[in-house]
Amino acid sequence: MSQSPSTTASTSLTSTGATPSESGTRTALVVLAHHRADSLSAHIARRATDRLTAAGYTIDFLDLHAENFDPRMTVADQPDWGYRDKRYSPAIEAHMARLLAAEVVVVVFPIYWQSVPAILKGWIDSVWNYGFAYGRSKPRLAGKRILWLGLAGATADDEIVAGMRQLLDAQLSVGLAYYSGFADSRVGVLPDAEEQPQSIDDAGNLVIGAAITGDARAAHYAAFDAKADGFVAEFLAAELVTA
Question: What number of other Cβ atoms are within 10 A of residue 222's Cβ?
């Protein structure tokens, strides 16, 4: 399934942190981790961007592939492990500044093997680094809010989906965001991403159904969009309740 999104990038940042805009506009960092600009993941990232913009946020759109982010950590990315106030590489400090500038973060990615793609894992490992995201009595990211939107090829009634959601929540919300001081982290799993329904039979074989077409396809992806929009709406509504 592919749809063509449009992406925007804004915000002027330094390697040491963000410069607040004169208007005081809130910033949302939208992170896309997919190698195709015409992917369903990119389409969902665009919809999330539109909703955040409508809610009054200035958007910093981070397309990891389009910006050629290198997921391989180097010594420069993590120098002098025991010194928490070390300088990181310029590239990593630039990403840290973008994360610092955002009040809320929305990450959109395809679910690979019940986890995140390699490029997103590399971004987490390199940017959410010791001395920055953790290793302080008060984390620099404390109080921020994050929504993880994962797209899955499995059908909604597949038993694997519940376990997938639990694994992602443990990895991303508990093991990462909570550990880094985020005030709110939630995972939205979006099954039924494929045009051809996929499932595993009792013998462990992959079963791929016929592709949906025409009105059925349009209705399928309208419902998919609505579910993704719902996760974003709930995320924004929770901010209003806790503000």
Answer: 10
pLDDT digits (tens, 9 = 90+) for 143-162: 999 999 999 999 998 889 99
**Model confidence at 81, in pLDDT bands (50, 70, 90)?**
confident
pTM, to two decimals: 0.87
Contact 184, 172 (CB under 8 A): no
3-state secondary structure of 232: helix
Q: Are 237 and 230 in contact, with CB atoms under 8 Å apart?
A: no
Across all residues in the chain, what is the average pLDDT?
Answer: 88
d(CA 78, CA 183) in angstroms, rounded, equals 26
Residue 31 · residue 100 · CB < 8 Å: no
Pairing of strands 57-63, 104-110: unpaired
The answer to whether 164 and 114 have CB atoms below 8 angstroms apart is yes
Q: Counting beta carbons within 10 angstroms of the beta carbon of residue 214, is it exposed (0 to 12), middle (13 to 18) or buried (19 or more)? A: exposed
- Please tell me the number of Cα atoms within 13 Å of 107 on its side-chain side: 25
> Would you give the distance in Å from CA 210 to the centre of its chain?
30
